[in-house]
Amino acid sequence: MRVFAAAAAALFVSATAFSDTSTYPQPLADALSMGYDAPDDAVWRFNMRVSMNDTAMELEFDGTQPDGDEWTLISPADPDALSGELADMWVDMNTPDDEEEESRGISVGSGGGLFFTPETASMIAGNVARTSGGGYTFRPDLDAESDEADSMAENLAGEVSLATAGHVDRIRIHAPVSFKPHPAARVHEFEMTMEFQQLEGLPAPVMTSMSTVVDVSALFQRQQQSVRFEFSDVEYVEP
What we know:
Blueprint: H1 2-14, H2 28-32, E1 43-52, E2 55-62, E3 71-75, H3 84-93, H4 118-121, E4 124-130, E5 136-140, H5 147-153, E6 157-162, E7 168-174, E8 179-182, E9 185-197, E10 206-218, E11 221-237
Antiparallel strand pairs: 1-2, 1-11, 2-3, 4-5, 5-6, 6-7, 7-9, 8-9, 9-10, 10-11
């Protein structure tokens, strides 16, 4: 289950095949061109709420603090009250990068941070069509260099909508029907949704929420997981 959840959480930064979005219909092409890569030494501050299945934690991120000390747990007040995946995530967040063997947290300050980036835009890989509601459907591209991602993408569909201000405000990638990415596994449900908002003074829209729902069975076991990240009080300063 952790592999599927980690893959879903990485989709918005893992796309490697850059599509020529200039060929897409207007105003979608303009919206996709609004991607922005933040400098690695840019400073972020924000609050984040992580909801996982029936549990949640609230945190504060301050990029001015030393590596491993950027996160402050707001709720629950005692880290010992965390359990399961949330407890593991909290430990990872407080482990310096050079000591991490496997990260399950959020990477901030590289690859665009919370911004809508060119990599995010490249997930919209083709077969773009306008919907009756004013949005667009598309063929997702998760990672052109990964056979596993290709196998997943064959079974996924995408939807994107634009805000009245012209930027992308929502991307949804989901499995219309269940499928088998591997002979011994079946994905019964897969959905990832990202929402963006343009904040005053920032060079690009920022992510305000990301959620994934995964329901998979393998080796006669079935596991379900629902994760949602919500970002608020975002502050950003370039060097």
